[in-house]
Amino acid sequence: MKYGWMGLLIGLACQKPGSGERERAPVTAGGELVYEVTESSMAGPVVHEVKLSFTEKGDEWEVNFEATAPAEGAPPIRVNGELVPADNVISAYSLGRLYLPTAGRAADKRTACGTVGPVRKYKQWDVFPVEGLCGTMAGTRFYEASTGMLVGWIYSGAVDENAVLKSSR
Q1: Pick the CATH number of 23-168 from 1.20.272, 2.60.40, 2.50.20, 1.10.3470
Q2: Band (132; pLDDT cuts 50, 70, 90)
Q3: What is the pLDDT of residues 138-154, one digit of tens each?
Q4: Which phi and psi angles does 2 have, rounded to 5°?
């Protein structure tokens, strides 16, 4: 038993200050994110919107999805404070991850969704681009540099997909 206590003391001594609490994404109860998504294929472009709304459920969030035609809604999911679901990525609309924590906001960092590039412009935002496979789609996701929130993505394939954050509240 003395080694058990020793391990606990060493673990506590090595723990970074404040690392007992996970960082929380900057969302609020009743908040919404609306993305304008353009899918391009040989048949031509199709534009629709995807709306995410957040409901606080204790230490977690419930994310509800709505979409305009031709896309369809998706069932709600539960995510933690960093907006990560139990199965690690949000498969609805191939979103992947909605939030890039502060520790991941630096060039060449490796994240669950790929490798972080240096800060650059995407539309009107300064962003950290993250390139890689996240869930079902490989591509580039753009996270606003100061907040870490997903503001857009570009996926290439049989159907190219470009999305941009249209509004948030």
Answers
A1: 2.50.20
A2: very high
A3: 999 999 999 999 999 99
A4: -65, -30
